[in-house]
């Protein structure tokens, strides 16, 4: 799928590794200005160095922040820092997440519970709220939340991670419903399915990583979210297995 992202600015949380890193590099090749957001400066610098800068007007920004400590004030400070560099944001991809522990709920550690809910659910809420004014002025505004197979069915040992993704599904639906009639912003929630990353390896340590799809195979699905075609979609929730068939057949 070919999409022109020249003059588009896309913020990707958790872009220091895994799916977010692939998206940052590939979307920059299509001309997008990329705002990298992560907590590890060294890893962010490494990704920054791999971003495309062949378009003369293209520029990128690193926001080093730990989403586990994000609050209203720091989210507003982030808005100011981004607004100094860019007039608007065309894409906000909420990709960062942590797995927590694979533990029965009766043994689940409270501080890990709080970290997972804060990073995976509360931070996307705060960040969306703070950045809405910059999305509202874009000509093709998109917010993409990242779901999971355990967002719909409660499964033993998935604990806070699963609860956070259930919550994120509700958050995405509410934002979609509220923004549909009041703004041009389209809100999507995407389950990428099993993908070869550190998180997948932590959740399934016995699995052969070579049997899991690489991050690059997700690219066309993300590009579809930025296409004109997706404007017509009445759906908000997408799974890789369905969306990939649709986008790869067009
Ligand atoms: P990775 O663990 O490979 O990458 C997660 C990214 O999020 C890293 O860049 C990580 O930074 C960042 N991050 C984590 N915590 C914070 C924090 N507190 N502040 C800032 N950044 C943070 O995961 P994936 O690429 O696999 O996952 C991406 C998304 O896809 C997640 O939302 C996940 O739930 C979802 N998903 C993944 C699946 C898979 O099979 N891989 C399946 C279904 C859903 P750092 O490098 O510092 O750790």
Helix segment count?
8
Task: Say how many strands there are.
Answer: 7
Tell me the span between the first and last alpha carbons.
Answer: 8 Å
Radius of gyration (Å): 17 Å
Overall form: globular
Can you tell me the CATH class?
A: Alpha Beta
| CATH architecture type | 3-Layer(aba) Sandwich
Category from helices, strands and their pairing: alpha/beta
- Helix amount: 40-55%
Q: What small-molecule ligands were found?
A: NADPH dihydro-nicotinamide-adenine-dinucleotide phosphate
Strand order of the largest sheet: 3-2-1-4-5-6-7
CATH superfamily: NAD(P)-binding Rossmann-like Domain
Largest sheet: 7 strands, parallel
Fold-level CATH name: Rossmann fold
Average pLDDT confidence is 96
**Tally of separate domains:** 1
Approximately how much beta-strand content do the residues carry?
5-15%
Q: Please provide the ordered H/E string of secondary-structure elements.
A: EHEHEHEHEHEHHEH
Question: Describe it for me?
Answer:
This protein has 8 helices and 7 strands. Strands 3-2-1-4-5-6-7 form a 7-stranded parallel beta sheet, sandwiched between helices. It is α/β, with parallel strands linked by helices. The protein has one domain: 3-Layer(aba) Sandwich (Rossmann fold). The protein binds NADPH dihydro-nicotinamide-adenine-dinucleotide phosphate.
Concise overview:
With 250 residues, this protein is an alpha/beta fold. Helices cover 42% and strands 13% of the residues. Strand 5, helix 5 and strand 6 (186-191) form a beta-alpha-beta unit.
């Amino acid at each position: 799928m070919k999409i022109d992202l020249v003059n588009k600015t896309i913020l990707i949380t958790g872009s220091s590794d895994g799916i977010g890193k692939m998206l940052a590099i590939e979307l920059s090749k299509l001309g997008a200005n990329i705002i990298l957001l992560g907590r590890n400066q060294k890893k962010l610098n490494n990704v920054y160095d791999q971003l495309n800068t062949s378009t003369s007007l293209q520029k990128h920004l690193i926001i080093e922040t730990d989403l586990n400590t994000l609050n209203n004030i720091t989210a507003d400070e982030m808005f100011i820092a981004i607004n100094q560099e860019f007039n608007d944001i065309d894409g906000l991809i909420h990709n960062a997440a942590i797995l927590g522990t694979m533990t029965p709920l009766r043994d689940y550690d409270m501080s890990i519970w709080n970290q997972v809910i804060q990073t995976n659910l509360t931070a996307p809420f705060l960040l969306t709220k703070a950045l809405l004014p910059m999305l509202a002025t874009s000509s093709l505004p998109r917010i993409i939340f990242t779901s999971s197979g355990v967002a719909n069915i409660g499964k033993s040992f998935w604990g806070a991670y699963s609860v956070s993704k259930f919550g994120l599904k509700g958050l995405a639906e509410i934002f979609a419903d509220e923004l549909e009639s009041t703004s041009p912003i389209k809100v999507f929630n995407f389950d990428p399915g099993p993908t070869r990353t550190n998180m997948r390896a932590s959740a399934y340590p016995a699995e052969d990583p070579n049997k899991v799809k690489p991050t690059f195979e997700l690219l066309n699905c993300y590009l579809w979210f930025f296409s004109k075609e997706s404007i017509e979609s009445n759906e908000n929730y997408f799974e890789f297995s369905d969306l990939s068939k649709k986008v790869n057949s067009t």
